[in-house]
């Protein structure tokens, strides 16, 4: 790949020391963990509520867990479902499955039985490693799936000994906490910790998977339809980890300068963003990964006193809550050198507040499950631009094309669909050749993934997202991008949050509907006031024709507003 500033204008905006291109090692993803165990055997790899696991201990547990899976009949290419919160056992199960050439399928442990049944059936998983609460649901639908064995994980077993024993105290607080962690399962249920404790370590000469082998089936969030599994190879994931370490420089610091990161794992590992920046990135750079089963401000601040963090992968609302707590506390967050945010743009006020309380940087990243997931990011320098998606990662190219004709490349400054090409781009959707064909296009001798995101490329190669094609509203023949109307309404007094969607509108095709969450002190907002506020900045055809007041907006597990769900709720309430 050539590194021409003329053809790749973003290269001029890279932070000092960041290579334009990377070499992807010809190795499985598990090689990172093995190297870290060799280099830093006594360093804490994991910290779960004060219970630490060194790299040497983690590598030993992974080898034992790999034997467990082999004994359960799992072989190369078999799918292993993991439905766990962020805890030590999640990391062990993830790397154990990959080590023997199996394919990991990550699931949200809070899914309903029906949602789990669909994904387990679709992936063809033969073993499911589940949190006890999730195991209850999987056992209900096991006969509808190919799952042969459900292995339950007692979450409390990953706690420090004293905290685990405290769960048995005859006090209401202990009983409540125990009920959130544990569930009652049928006699004969197979338990993860017991199996791992009894197993022998996997033989060192056991065959490794190849770099091109399938490593992960990651189901997309389903914001535009039924979730489908994106197929990601070891090479895809290794490439993205190498790109991330090159972008941050963390691996160079760890190896050459002897320092190391403390990564706070508040993002769910079953989501592609949390999986890459925590499960894989942290292991490659020999970081200490602090595990949080869910995001909780008090838990983060408590951990910060015990083991100060240096890197926080997050979504903007998390930064808002932590910054507010630091100012009100006060709490010391100055150990954080940088936070990388995704899923939504970082508001300027959010970035400024975080950088004020930490002295570090708030950096925006962009990607999708189909790109392993990170494809663009703002530089870790004064060149960063809050609100922008950022610059293409090393060895990553982007094009802006016509929304209706992805073969027509548009010049810089014009609005169009973002295409991405690079070693982190997936090979397609599991058992969905037609949808794969719709998502991947060949241009200029490369394979590109269509993102469905409408962007503009600015000077210096910075990319700005302006909307989603699939959420575009067509009214009276005109195209309305929801985010344009939303951006205007967010500045309206009394409006705390907003989502704009399209509903059937008779002769118009669709009508623009604004769903508002009002601030507590708001005296009331009506449709005429909304239209009057918007008409100075929004085309007349894009003005809302219906107003709905909501208590809050439905969001994904990582905080992204789900416009599709908003639309369904508005229709149901009509």
Provide tags for this entry:
574 residues; alpha/beta; Rossmann fold; Luciferase, domain 3; GMP Synthetase, Chain A, domain 3; five-stranded mixed sheet; 18 helices; 23% strand; globular
Stretches with pLDDT under 50, minimum 5 residues: none
The termini sit apart by: 54 Å
What is the CATH C level class of the domain at 29-43 and 53-209, in words?
A: Alpha Beta
Q: Might you state the CATH topology name of the domain at 29-43 and 53-209?
A: Rossmann fold
CATH architecture of the domain at 29-43 and 53-209: 3-Layer(aba) Sandwich
**What characterizes the major β-sheet?**
8 strands, mixed
How large is the share of residues in beta strands? 15-25%
Strand order of the largest sheet: 7-6-5-3-4-8-9-19
- Topology, number of strands: 27
The gross shape turns out to be globular
GO molecular function, one term: ligase activity, forming carbon-sulfur bonds
Keywords: Ligase
Protein name: Acyl-CoA synthetase (AMP-forming)/AMP-acid ligase II
InterPro entries: AMP-bd_C, AMP-bd_C_sf, AMP-binding_CS, AMP-dep_synth/lig_dom, ANL_N_sf, ATP-dep_AMP-bd_enzyme
């Amino acid at each position: 790949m050539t590194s021409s500033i003329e053809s790749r204008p973003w290269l001029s905006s890279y932070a000092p020391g960041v290579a334009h291109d990377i070499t992807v090692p010809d190795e499985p993803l598990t090689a990172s963990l093995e190297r870290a165990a060799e280099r830093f055997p006594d360093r804490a790899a994991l910290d779960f509520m004060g219970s630490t696991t060194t790299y040497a201990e983690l590598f030993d547990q992974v080898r034992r867990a790999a034997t467990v899976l082999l004994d359960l009949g799992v072989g190369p290419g078999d799918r292993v479902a993991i439905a766990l919160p962020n805890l030590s056992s999640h990391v062990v199960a993830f790397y154990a499955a990959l080590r023997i050439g199996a394919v990991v399928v990550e699931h949200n442990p809070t899914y309903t039985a029906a949602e789990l049944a669909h994904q387990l059936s679709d992936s063809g998983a033969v073993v499911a490693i589940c949190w006890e609460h999730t195991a209850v649901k999987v056992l209900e639908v096991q006969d509808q799936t190919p799952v042969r064995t459900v292995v339950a994980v007692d979450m409390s077993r990953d706690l420090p000994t004293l905290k685990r024993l405290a769960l048995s105290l005859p006090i209401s607080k202990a009983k409540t906490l125990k009920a959130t962690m544990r569930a009652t399962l049928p006699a004969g249920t197979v338990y993860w910790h017991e199996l791992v404790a009894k197993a022998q370590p996997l033989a060192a000469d056991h065959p490794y998977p190849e770099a091109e082998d399938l490593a992960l089936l990651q189901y997309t969030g389903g914001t535009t339809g039924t979730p489908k599994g994106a197929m990601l190879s070891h090479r895809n994931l290794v490439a993205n980890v190498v790109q991330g370490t090159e972008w941050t420089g963390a691996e160079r610091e760890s190896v050459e300068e002897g320092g190391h990161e403390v990564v706070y794992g508040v993002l769910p590992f079953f989501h592609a963003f949390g999986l890459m920046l925590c499960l894989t990135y942290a292991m490659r750079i020999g970081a200490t990964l602090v595990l949080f089963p869910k995001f909780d401000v008090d838990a983060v601040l408590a951990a910060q006193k015990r083991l100060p963090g240096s890197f926080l992968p997050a979504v903007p609302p998390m930064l808002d809550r932590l910054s507010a707590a630091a100012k009100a506390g006060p709490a010391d967050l100055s150990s954080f050198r940088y936070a990388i945010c995704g899923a939504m743009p970082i508001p300027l006020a959010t970035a400024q507040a975080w950088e004020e309380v930490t002295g570090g940087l708030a950096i925006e990243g962009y990607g999708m499950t189909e790109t392993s997931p990170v494809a663009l990011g703002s530089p870790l320098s004064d060149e960063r631009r809050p609100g922008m998606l950022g610059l293409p990662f090393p060895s990553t190219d982007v094009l802006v094309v016509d929304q209706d004709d992805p073969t027509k490349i548009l010049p810089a400054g014009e609005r169009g669909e973002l295409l991405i090409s690079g070693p982190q781009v997936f090979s397609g959707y599991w058992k969905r050749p037609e949808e794969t064909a719709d998502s991947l296009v060949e241009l200029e001798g490369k394979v590109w993934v269509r993102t469905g995101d409408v962007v503009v490329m600015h000077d210096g190669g910075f990319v700005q997202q302006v909307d989603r094609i699939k959420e575009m509203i067509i009214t009276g023949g005109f195209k309305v991008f929801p985010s344009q109307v939303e951006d205007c309404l967010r500045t309206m007094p009394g409006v705390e949050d907003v989502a704009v969607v399209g509903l059937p509108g008779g002769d118009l095709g669709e009508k623009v509907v604004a769903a508002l969450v009002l601030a507590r002190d708001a005296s009331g907002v009506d449709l005429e006031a909304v239209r009057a506020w918007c008409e100075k900045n929004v085309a007349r055809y894009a003005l809302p024709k219906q107003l709905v007041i909501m208590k809050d907006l439905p969001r994904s597990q990582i905080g992204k507003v789900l416009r599709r769900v908003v639309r369904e709720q508005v229709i149901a309430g009509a």
